[in-house]
Amino acid sequence: MTEVTGTAEPAPSIIGVDVGGSKILARRVDPETGWAEGRVKAPTSTDGPESVIDQIEAVVTSIDDWRSSIAIGVGMPGPVTPGGVAGPCPNIEGWDEPIDLAAGLRSRLDKPVVVSNDVNCGAAAEHRLGAGQGYSNMLAIFVGTGVGGGLVIDNRLLGGERGIAGEIGHVTVEPGGRPCGCGGRGHLETYAGRAGIDAEMRRRSDGGANGFLLSLVGDSPLKSRHLAAGVDAGDPLSFALIEEAAHALARVIGNTATLLDIPLVVLGGGIVDRLGEPFLDQIRQSPDFGGYGPTVTDLVLARRLDDAGAVGAALLAADQLA
Amino acid sequence: MTEVTGTAEPAPSIIGVDVGGSKILARRVDPETGWAEGRVKAPTSTDGPESVIDQIEAVVTSIDDWRSSIAIGVGMPGPVTPGGVAGPCPNIEGWDEPIDLAAGLRSRLDKPVVVSNDVNCGAAAEHRLGAGQGYSNMLAIFVGTGVGGGLVIDNRLLGGERGIAGEIGHVTVEPGGRPCGCGGRGHLETYAGRAGIDAEMRRRSDGGANGFLLSLVGDSPLKSRHLAAGVDAGDPLSFALIEEAAHALARVIGNTATLLDIPLVVLGGGIVDRLGEPFLDQIRQSPDFGGYGPTVTDLVLARRLDDAGAVGAALLAADQLA
């Protein structure tokens, strides 16, 4: 057999797969640089977990055209144990219980498989390729319908004893405060998450002066653009809700910095992207921001990397297999 | 030269030194088992840092009679950088600035020296030899005049980017709450630390029904035994202060468990030792205890190990040199 040299043989890659509520997306990632090539996607099946696992196998097989990948990393929208048992995933039809996804995919693909939480994948991507480059310790907070977080400690994404670290949305910021979907009260995401802001907006919109936002939103869910429109129009309730979100974020950032000596916080997600630097300034000016002593915390916007979930899943797989 | 075999040659040991405000104590520690032998101590000098460093050198030289130690671990009552720069240490006369203690001792003793914060030393001892045995992730909280903490993540004591992780006493539990010595408000130690409870007791003791504790304490600082006496006498203010301490601790424990997925919290220090299991029950019954989702947190009393500071300093030195 003739020995082949040169560039025809691709470098070893890791396939990263981001499994979301609406689509499944796979990329081929160089684990050294984070450089991604190829992109395969499919609308997430609503026929239950087996069908979704079939799809994951299909996108991996499709993108791994050289069969040269050395491992598979998968990001899932729910809790994931260190061993790769994922779920429940409320955004995926029928995925109501924990399922050993790592074992299932390993037996189908005959390669190492590492499954991670999708927010942790996003945090890993920000750390390696985004706003966290060069830092050994950082906290990433993603504000969406709820609020998720990922912690990097000594250059490793913190998974936690049972794989549920980073549930920052359910940290209490206001004892006895706004009711949370989880049954608790005063949790961060009731102040900073879109669903929490929406519910509070409806509670305070008793017609009259506070009705501006409700008139924009109607019966649909509140969007980030509605809040931005409220600010543009000088609507007092919009200002108040944003201010309260900033205070809640500042408090959790300050406490986390105090406890963990974290110098960098990266903030991303719909509302943050929409409101931008002025919102970060509101957080910085809150009295609880910064934490104790010399813990001056840098607060920066996330880079909004392309396909951060898929790329981060591959990077976390590389970390775990190293 | 005749080769000597048998037990005359001691196993390699690490000298652990606990530098406190009143005494300096050294022990010879087997880094594998944590077993400690020998004990040398000296009253802490009030003649300034150079004199204290002389004392550290003296106790180490004295206890290391075989000159067989492979390293020195030192615990200091103040912040310590990862490189071993310690201070300020308010309890040591004249130690008002950071001093490169590791470098100073290394040049005097010609051995590896690792300097750690004393609370972290106590946490490491509890993890390896006390209530935390068998856990990979835990939080230790020590309640004294103030409140300190140490976090073990994946079997390593978390030092933090700049060596100031674990400042749990200054986590905000009550926005805008009791004033803290650091200038902040509503920090954990204003509710659970002896100095914070003392100050609050004086604020609420306006003669009349709330004067019981003040009549016991007078102008001296409040002690744990005063609170215990208040409970025995059915004093409502004593009950209230203890209840508020329990709620504050529960809140920080719950939030830390939520953020970090920590299954075990070890609690120690004067007030905790005095009040014991009933106080832990009060914490467990607080609504904020336990954190989010499946984060059921075990809360146990610290073991009150002998010379935990010195032994922990040696164990941390072993970890860092491994």
Structure keywords:
homodimer; 322 residues; alpha/beta; Nucleotidyltransferase, domain 5; 2 domains; five-stranded mixed beta sheet; 10 helices; 12 strands; globular
Identify the quaternary structure here: homodimer
Uncertain regions spanning at least 5 consecutive residues of chain A = none
Largest sheet of chain A: 5 strands, mixed
The number of helical runs of chain A is 10
CATH topology of the largest domain in chain A: Nucleotidyltransferase, domain 5
**Overall pLDDT of chain A:** 91
In total, the number of domains of chain A comes to: 2
Biggest sheet of chain A: strands side by side, in what order? 3-2-1-4-7
* Largest interface, C-beta closer than 8 angstroms, per-chain residues: A-B, 42 and 42 residues
H/E series of chain A, N to C? EEEHEEEHEHEEEHHHHHEHEH
Q: What is the CA-based Rg of chain A, rounded? A: 21 Å
Distance between the termini of chain A: 32 Å
Structural class of chain A: alpha/beta
The count of DSSP E runs of length 2 or more, i.e. the number of strands of chain A, is 12
Q: Helix proportion of residues of chain A, in percent? A: 25-40%
